Each structure stands twice: as C-alpha cells, then as structure tokens.
Amino acid sequence: MNPGGHPTSGGGRTPRRDERSPGKPATALDVAHRAGVSRTAVSFVLNGKSDGNIAEATRQRILEAARELDYRPHPVARSLRTSRTQLIGLITDSIASSPFAGQLLGGATDRARERGHLVAVFDSGERPALEEQAAEEFAGRRVDGLIYASMGLREVASVPDVGLPTVLANCFDARGELPSVIPAEEEAGATAARCLLDMGHRQIGVITGDLVVAGPRRLAGFTKTLAESGVKPVAVQELRGGWTIDAGFHATRAMLTRADGQLRQRRPTAIFCVNDRVAAGALLAAAGLGLAVPADLSILGFDDQEELAANLVPSLSTLALPHREMGRQAVDLLLDVVEQPDAPVTPTLRELPSPLVWRESVAAPPPTR
Amino acid sequence: MNPGGHPTSGGGRTPRRDERSPGKPATALDVAHRAGVSRTAVSFVLNGKSDGNIAEATRQRILEAARELDYRPHPVARSLRTSRTQLIGLITDSIASSPFAGQLLGGATDRARERGHLVAVFDSGERPALEEQAAEEFAGRRVDGLIYASMGLREVASVPDVGLPTVLANCFDARGELPSVIPAEEEAGATAARCLLDMGHRQIGVITGDLVVAGPRRLAGFTKTLAESGVKPVAVQELRGGWTIDAGFHATRAMLTRADGQLRQRRPTAIFCVNDRVAAGALLAAAGLGLAVPADLSILGFDDQEELAANLVPSLSTLALPHREMGRQAVDLLLDVVEQPDAPVTPTLRELPSPLVWRESVAAPPPTR
DNA sequence: TTGTATGCGTTATCAC
DNA sequence: GTGATAACGCATACAA
C-alpha cells in the first residue's frame, strides 16, 4: 500500500509462497493478495485501464507481483467473461491437396498469433456440405470469426451464414457483401508483360488455359500491357483441361514449329505460361528443339510452384501468387471487424500483387532476327 | 433471469418463446426450467450419467426440452469447469512448404472433429526457436495436448516439454519417450519390390538418394525383398542433394546407356525411384531414348506427389506416404492419453503402411531378353 | 482510488 | 431421484 509497507516478505518466516508449486498457475486473486490490493486493481492494471484509477506505485507493485508469480490470465475464464475466444475458424476447400493453401494458412496463423489469436482449421475436402457443418461447429465453439479460403481463385455462390464475422480469402462472393482478399490478377498479367517487355522482347507467345476466374483477368492484363507498347502476342495457345507438363510440351512445340517439324521463322523469343507445370513442359520442348533457355528463348511461368520451379534446369522465373499475404490480410480484415463490432461492415475487396520471382529462364532476346 | 418464469414471452403476442431469439442461446438452466427439473438432472442426462439416477420419463422430458430449445452446452463454460478445452495444438516445421503436410493436417482435423476436438495450428517455418514459443503459447491457451508434425521423416532431438500430453507425427524422438506415428519405411520398400517382382521384373534398377532417415530403411526393405526372390538390383544410382526432375533424367540416362550413348545390353526393365520428381525425370529420359513406358520400361515412383504423378504421361505408379493416416492416428494417440490421464504413458510407435497407387507407368516387362 | 458483489454457464458435491 | 449450492477465474458496475 505505502512504501513503508512490506514490499516483499510479510511475515518473519519466509513462507516461500511466491514459488508456486508447478501445476497450480497463479490466479489474479493470488496476485492481488501478494501485492496487497484487490482483484479489481489487478484487473485494471493488467488490462491497461489503470490510467486515472490506480496510483503508479500501486501499479508497479501489482506488475511486480504478477511477474514474480508468473501470472497469466486464464484464457478460458476470460473468454467466458468477455465472450471472445481469441479463436479464428478457418475453413478451406482443400488444404490437403494444394501446395499453396499451406502458405495461406501459414500467413494466417502467423498474423493471428501476432494479434493474440489462434487459428483452428477445418478442411472440407471440396465437399460443400461439410463447409456448412464446419461453420456451424465453429460457431458452436464460439470462435470470434470465420475465414473462408479456397485453393483456386473463384467466386463463391453462398457462404453459410452463422452470424459470425466472415472474410473470404482467395475467393469472393457474388454479391460483394463480404470483405475479401484476392490476387490482383490483371496486375499480375501486366507484371508478366512488363517483365518480358523490359527485357527487350517483342515477339511474345502465351500459353493460356481455361482457368475460370483468374485466367481471363490475367490474360487481359497481359495483352493490354503489351498493347500499350504496341505489341501483339505473336502466338497464343489455349490449353483445355489438363495444364500438365505434357500439355505445355506439346503446346510449345506447336508454337515453335511448323507442321513439318521445322522451327518457324517467325516465332516468339519469349513465352508466358499459364502455370509452372506448363512452363516445365515448355522448357523440355525447347531443349528438344535445340533451343537454349534463356539464350534463345525466354520462358516465364506462373505460380512459383516451389517444388518445381526452383528445381528445373534452368530454374524457372515465375510469378508468385500472394498466398501468404492473403492469409495475413484476411486475418487483419477479420480481426478489424471483430474488434470493432459497431463499425459498419465495409465490403472491402483487397487485391494483392503477385511478385515476380527472378530465376534463370528469362533473359534478353537473342540479338539477331 | 427469466422474467416471471414464463416459458413464453410475457405479452400475449407472439408467444413462440421456444424459438430462442437468435443471439441468445439457451442455457442448461433454461432447459431445466422448461422441463420442470433441476440443472443437475439436465447435466446428468446430457452427460450420460443418468443411468441409475434419473427416471426414464424425466430423462425423455429433459431431452425433449433440450431439443426444443436447441440447447448446446456452452463450450467455454464447460472448459472452465472441466479444465479441458477440447483443443489440440499442432506444431509443424512447415505446413507451408510441403504439399504433404496438408494431408497430415487434414487427417488430424478430420479425426479431431470426430472426437469432438478442434485443431489449432502453428507453423514454425523451420525456425526451432518458434517451436518452443508455440508450445508455450499453446500451453498458456490450455490446449489439451500437442502434436508435433514434421514434413520429412526425422528424429527430433528435443521436444519442448510444457507439461502437456504430446505425440509426434512423421518424426520420433531419440529417447523413444513420446508416442509417435511414422511411415513403415522398410515395409514400403518391400511393397515396391513386390510390386515389381509380381509383374515379372527381374532386371531391376533403383535410383535412391541420401535421404537421412527414410532412405536407408526404404532401400533396405526393397533390396531385402528382392533378395528373398533371388534378385539383385541390376543397377543402383545414388543421388546426392537435389532430387530433381533433372537429376532423375541424368541418373536414368546413365543407368540405361553406355558411355557412347547407346542403350546398354543389360539394363533394367523396371526402375524404382526415390521420389516422383526423379521418376518424372526418368520418364523423360526414357522418352528421349525411344523407350516406351511401360511397354519397354516400367517406372515406379514414391510419394504420390499428386500435382505431378497423376499428370504425367504416362501417369505415374507410385507409393503414397500415409500422411493423412498419420494425422488421424496422431490425434487418436493423443486423445487416448488425454482421456486417460492416469494410465501409464506407453511410448507407442506406430508404423503405417504406404499404399501402392496404381497408375500407368508400371506393367510387365517386355517378353524378350 | 480501492474494495465488494455479481454474473458468465457448466459440472460436481451433497444433503434431502 | 432430486434440488440447492459451491466452485472454475475473470471482468466490471457500483458502492465506499
């Protein structure tokens, strides 16, 4: 209470109460007891509400007592009282099958931790029925909010509404009512184009695919940027269905050779591929045709599928979808609304850039021709 | 709390009190009230302890009341009381970077859900310091137990001990004190061998790698099973470091051709590859050498790296590491000890089989030779 | 400025 | 069989 009091041992006989027997964490009452104050004071100090309420000396005493006792508020008791669990539910259509979803998840858990939250995850495995169920289970568990993450960018028809703050990651809802964070696909296409343009390429080919949402946007940004420099793709191949290494291989051959198997006269000096697998096929096709990459032909991939892109020879320059960052920002978006329950729900749509990952497969075009 | 104890709203209009206004979930007291019994009775019935205590009629009445009110026990309140959060903490060295970790996670969340638990995850991103921190944070959050999962099979030196039940997935501790679940690597090697043997192959090559733990075991099982049939690998290549498509390509060429580039006389009719990337390289090498797969040469991969194996031409037969099952069983192991706190901790080591995934790249050897 | 009393919703211990 | 009553640990309106 006052400096003349007994800051440390109250009685003469060292009862050693400060060393709590392990397994019995200190409670707020213990702290109050030890600091010679009430639980209220403890609560105020530890929640930063001590400003005009608690004397500085008292505050210090409480802080010290808490430290000595290694006090941590019991999260469950706190939750019961505040009706906030500091838990986020993340529902995804497939963590399991995508190498990217993990990045998103990693970003989300990281950021959540920074903001004092845990992320509980549930994988619907592409079974929409389970998503609804998962949402309800999370709601029943009183999570503070929900994140829906999809593996591929897509528009989701309906998100189960269980009365919880919800944000979308790598997807968006038709009615644009929910905050969501997605890749800026058009910009990514533009980045790819600029990369090739800046290296001096003018004869540019593109192998695209029937990607539902992302594809057209990406291609639009690509061709538009090209057009702004007065360049038109010299060749375009559209892959349907399987964007495999094999498909990339054949598409590239078709793009580079004539029917008789000879190299075309007028052929691209650079090819932009819809994804890294296709780019891998392109690499192989080039090798088969005696074209050196990147000396004779530059190849730019998409996705930064690490297991693949970094291990090819030559290693693949590509664009990395911002999965990790989507995870982080989805959490931010969500916690912002969780922590401001009264604020109006702004249907934010954040579009994140896909950074270029420079490796070996892109260089300036060959001087001649 | 309930004003006047009227089951319906006080006013004459819109009685419908049983349809709780959303946002105000029914409590156990509400149920007791509505069924005209005490909370004790409700608790007994809902926790299955009604056997000799509650009259069947009463039991039914309570059940009905609960159903009508759509009562669900408040998990936070329950946790506070039982000091069990029904939460599992999963720490992994890299969800993010591995396509497999997702499977493990999926299996874990699935099984946890079946047993009434949620899985909160944290990705240390290969930073061991963070693992300790994560463990402490989970402990502070009062999770019921911890799972450590690693991306590649390995022995872990020390697992942070935060006084929580812990099990290991896809790794094991040096002292064998912790329950853990890992792939049966030797058996997997045997399975691969038997697969090739059963198809009639006797000239068998293997491209292995310097995989720390799994490699030797797997190879041991493979060669042992071969030996039991009196077969010795006709060629063995060991890859160091990068197990890339490219490495597989060159290793396969080396295995199939002589120094002058001609096909060897005595060459394998089947090759077992350390992983699917290497197998992809083998596929390409075979194609380059004019060998048809699987007609002239069978290729068996390992890992079932889906993005790759299923999309190659021909698609790759391979062995799938039991990641999903490891996740499931890790949860089972963990919850078994969580639910039997008094039982002695048996340092179980479960070894799970890697199923063969039949696709196109393996067939009988060519008749001649 | 500090202390007191109460509620969050459950489970568990007893007397009745 | 049943029904009060006490924790669990924290936060806070309100009284001192």
TrEMBL record, chains A, B:
Renumbered to this chain, region (Disordered) spans 1-28
Q: Which UniProt keywords apply?
A: DNA-binding, Repressor, Transcription, Transcription regulation
Which GO MF terms does the UniProt record name? DNA-binding transcription factor activity; transcription cis-regulatory region binding
Q: Pfam families annotated for this entry?
A: LacI, Peripla_BP_3
What InterPro entries does the database record attribute to this sequence? HTH_LacI (IPR000843), LacI/GalR-like_sensor (IPR046335), Lambda_DNA-bd_dom_sf (IPR010982), Peripla_BP_I (IPR028082)
User: Which part of the chain is the HTH lacI-type domain?
Assistant: 26-82
**PROSITE patterns linked:** HTH_LACI_2 (PS50932)
**Stored SUPFAM superfamilies:** lambda repressor-like DNA-binding domains, Periplasmic binding protein-like I
Xref: SMART domains: HTH_LACI
- The superkingdom of the source organism is Bacteria
**What is the recorded name of this protein?**
LacI family DNA-binding transcriptional regulator
Species in which this protein is naturally found: Flexivirga aerilata
